[in-house]
Amino acid sequence: MTRSPVLELRGLSRRYGQTTVLNDIDVTIPEGSFTALLGASGCGKSTTLRIMAGLDRPSEGEVLLSGKDVSQKTTHQRNIAMVFQSYALYPHLTVFQNMALPLTMRHLSSLGRMPFVGAVAPGSSKARNLIAEKVGAAAEVLGLTDLLHRKPSSLSGGQKQRVALGRAMVRDPVLFLLDEPLSNLDARLRVKMRAELVALHRRTGRPFVYVTHDQSEAMAMADQIVVMIGGKVAQAGAPRDLYDRPASRDVATFIGHNAINLFQPADGMPGLHPAADEAVIGLRPEHLSPAATGALEANLETAEYLGSEIILALRSERGTEIRAIAPGDYAIPAPGSPVRLGFEPTRLHLFDEQTGKRLEVAS
Q1: Alpha helices, DSSP H, located in 172-283
Q2: Residue 46: its pLDDT value, please?
Q3: Do 183 and 227 belong together in one domain?
Q4: Does the predicted model carry a pTM greater than 0.85?
Q5: 262 with 280: CB under 8 angstroms?
C-alpha cells in the first residue's frame, strides 16, 4: 500500500555564496517511514536535515509538509523535533526537567516557570500535571523512569541519548529528525541503540529521518535510504534495492559491507561476462568464492580469518586486485597459490564506463 508523504523536498538547492551544497534534490518522506540520509562527510545530508527542520532556508525549491509549503516557517511552526549528535542536554537540569523543557515553554507562562511562585500562578497546577503525565509516559517507553531525578553528568552515553529522544517525544511532533545520534557511542552500544531506535520508531508510528555516514547503520535500520553524493541524490529506495540494483557505480561502491570489486575493460576478465570488454563489471566479494570449476583464476595474496568467514585478497595474472569471501572452514592455501573463483551470473552489475550509470545485464 502506498503511503502518503509527510514531508517533500522538491527541486531544492542550497548555495552559500559561490558554493553549491545541495543541487536540485527531490526527497519524499512517507508516512510512518524510517528514512536514512546516507553519505560521506560534505555530501549535503546535514544541510538537508537542517532545511527539513527549518533551521536553514533553501536557495531554491520547496519544502512541503503535509502538502503545504513551509519553506519559510520555523521549526516550532512545523512541529518537527530534531535530536542532535551532542544531545544538547542542560547539565544543571534533571532528566525530568530536560525532558519537560519543550512542554514547560509551551504550557507555562514566564511567571508559572518561576520556582516557588510558579506553583501558585493561575493555571500552573493543571499545566504541571499535564507535563508530568507526558514526561512520565515518555520515560516509561524509554526506560528512564528510575533516572528522572538524576543529572546528565551521572548518565551513560546511551542514557543521554534516550533523554534527548524523550525530550523530542513529549512534543508529539509530526516528524523526528536525528543527526548522527549514535556517533558518540562505542561500537557495542551503537548496535544496542540501533535496535532501540527501530523499536521506538514502531511504537510512535511517526516518520524518522536519520542522518548517517555509516551504511551498515542505514541498511540495518531504515526502510528507505537516500544516498547523497556531491550534493545530489544518487539513489533513493529500499536497502535491498540499493544493494541488489545500484543505480550507478558510485552507489555500488558506497553500499555494501565489503567493498565491491570493479573490473575495468582493460583488466581483461572475459570469464566474467561477454560485456567485460565494453563495460565496468561489478561483483561483490560475498558473491565471489572459491570453486573448483570457477570461471576466474587468481593468485592468493592474503587471507583474513574472521571466524565465520575468510576474506581473500587475490591478484589476477594481469595484476587486477580481487577480493572474495570463503566460508570459515575453507582450507587456506599458501600465499601465491592459484585459486579458482565462482559466482552466480545474476549477481553481476554492469556500469557504463563513461557515465557510471547502471546497464541491464542480459540474461
Answers
A1: 187-204, 215-221, 239-244, 249-254
A2: 92
A3: yes
A4: yes
A5: yes
